């Protein structure tokens, strides 16, 4: 029988917690990888510029693989697709630390990015669908759980770096644990399936012009986030000559403020409005960038990274909400904003490396500071975004592929 599947509130509540756990596991993989980048650099012997090149390969892998996620969900159902893609992502954590040189590191990061992108699309599609059925905003909280996972992963990575452990062993153990947790979490998500005669979702759709403007704000925020997450530990080690443990702790500080801000994001936006929230956040992120660039002591740089995390945390959920209200075709607008923001996060690490190789890491984070200031100037395009309502995101291509049964 075709038609809209009906779920009770109890089942939806369980599904909300389950998809939140999936977000947490996904973030933990990223946090685990980011804190051990200095170890991987030493192990492979790559320069800052070569690291930047290698970090472009997650973007390439994701851009190639992300369009497949909708088709996979269409073929295997939402739960089956998420389960398989999440396992591929958790196991891909082991690959970068095994790479002995630049070439193999690029290949490992290509697979890492491909599995990251596909699992990201699948879990966000389910998150949007649960939000739609609950008729209440949960996406900021889900992204907060991703940040909490990144915090947990980076905290474990900080401890592993402090103890001088081999990243290959650390990542192997983390991958096993996260795979098990991910499989358990996937059991609770709602299992949406396409009708037998339903057409597969389109692989690509051009975004409307309104999405490009909104996406530019998301680009600034996600660029700052991606640069800080992947380069903060390297920055403290190479620029401020800190120990591996202290360097890794900077990533933890960044992830902590991101998690706290996202978990509280819905309440803050409801009280102060999206424009004021993003504008104040932009000021905080800009101040954080200035602290990083000017810091001569690790504590100041760590405070700067924490402020960047605080300032950019809620921008992306608000960008999705604004896109959903920006024109007659919400799905195209949201897909366009998602493409811009995700691409920003994936290219940021390699762009930082390229600038660092040509100049220095200090100059690289000067660029991050300038983009953070763009949030202050451009916050007005998010006027009216408010909370991410059910109608603002439930018909994205990835979600639509799994809503009918």
Architecture blueprint of SSEs:
Blueprint: H1 9-35, H2 37-44, H3 48-54, H4 57-76, H5 78-92, H6 95-98, H7 102-134, H8 139-162, H9 167-186, H10 209-238, H11 244-263, H12 265-272, H13 274-294, H14 298-312, H15 315-324, H16 330-358, H17 361-378, H18 390-393, H19 397-400
Can you characterise this structure?
This protein is an all-alpha fold and 405 residues long. The chain contains 19 helices and no strands. It has helices at 9-35, 37-44, 48-54, 57-76, 78-92, 95-98, 102-134, 139-162, 167-186, 209-238, 244-263, 265-272, 274-294, 298-312, 315-324, 330-358, 361-378, 390-393, 397-400. The chain is globular.
Give me a quick take on this structure.
Helices cover 78% and strands 0% of the residues. With 405 residues, it is an all-alpha fold. The N and C termini lie close together (7 Å).
Question: Roughly what fraction of the amino acids lie in strands?
Answer: under 5%
C-alpha end-to-end distance: 7 Å
H/E series, N to C?
A: HHHHHHHHHHHHHHHHHHH
The largest sheet is: none
- Helix and strand content put the structural class at mainly alpha
Q: How many distinct beta strands?
A: 0
Radius of gyration: 20 Å
- Calculate the mean pLDDT score and round it: 82
Shape summary? globular
Number of helices: 19
Approximately how much helix is present in the residues? over 70%
Identify low-pLDDT runs. 387-405
List keywords for this structure.
globular; disordered C terminus; about 400 residues; 19 helices; mainly alpha
């Amino acid at each position: 029988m075709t038609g809209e599947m009906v779920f009770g509130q109890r089942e939806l509540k369980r599904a909300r917690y389950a998809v939140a756990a999936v977000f947490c596991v996904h973030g933990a993989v990223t946090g685990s990888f980011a804190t051990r980048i200095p170890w991987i650099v030493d192990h492979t012997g790559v320069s800052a510029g070569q690291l930047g090149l290698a970090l472009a390969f997650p973007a390439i892998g994701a851009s190639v693989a992300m369009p497949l996620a909708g088709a996979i969900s269409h073929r295997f159902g939402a739960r089956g697709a998420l389960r398989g893609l999440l396992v591929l992502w958790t196991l891909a954590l082991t690959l970068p630390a095994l790479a002995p040189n630049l070439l193999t590191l690029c290949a490992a990061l290509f697979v890492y990015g491909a599995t990251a992108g596909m699992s990201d699309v699948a879990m966000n599609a389910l998150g949007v669908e649960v939000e739609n059925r609950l008729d209440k905003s949960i996406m900021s909280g889900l992204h907060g759980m991703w940040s909490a996972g990144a915090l947990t992963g980076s905290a474990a990575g900080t401890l592993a770096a402090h103890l001088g452990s081999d990243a290959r062993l650390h990542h192997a153990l983390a991958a096993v644990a996260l795979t098990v947790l991910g499989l358990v979490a996937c059991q609770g998500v709602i299992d949406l399936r396409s009708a037998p005669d339903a057409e597969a979702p389109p692989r690509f759709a051009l975004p409307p012009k309104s999405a490009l403007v909104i996406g530019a704000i998301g680009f600034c925020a996600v660029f700052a986030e991606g640069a800080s997450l992947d380069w903060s530990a390297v920055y403290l080690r190479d620029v401020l000559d800190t120990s591996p443990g202290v360097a890794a702790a900077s990533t933890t500080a960044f992830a902590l403020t991101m998690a706290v801000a996202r978990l509280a994001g819905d309440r803050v936006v409801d009280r102060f409005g999206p424009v004021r929230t993003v504008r104040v956040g932009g000021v905080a992120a800009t101040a954080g960038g200035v602290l990083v660039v000017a810091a001569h002591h690790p504590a100041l740089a760590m405070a700067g990274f924490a402020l960047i995390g605080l300032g950019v945390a809620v921008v992306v959920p608000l960008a999705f909400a604004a896109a959903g209200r920006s024109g007659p075709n919400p799905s195209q607008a949201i897909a366009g904003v998602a493409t811009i923001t995700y691409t920003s996060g994936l290219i940021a690490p390699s762009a930082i490396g390229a600038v660092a190789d040509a100049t220095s890491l200090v100059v690289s984070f000067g660029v991050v500071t300038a983009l953070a200031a763009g949030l202050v100037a451009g916050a007005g395009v998010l006027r009216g975004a408010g909370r991410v309502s059910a109608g603002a995101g439930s018909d994205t291509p990835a979600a639509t592929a799994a809503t009918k049964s």
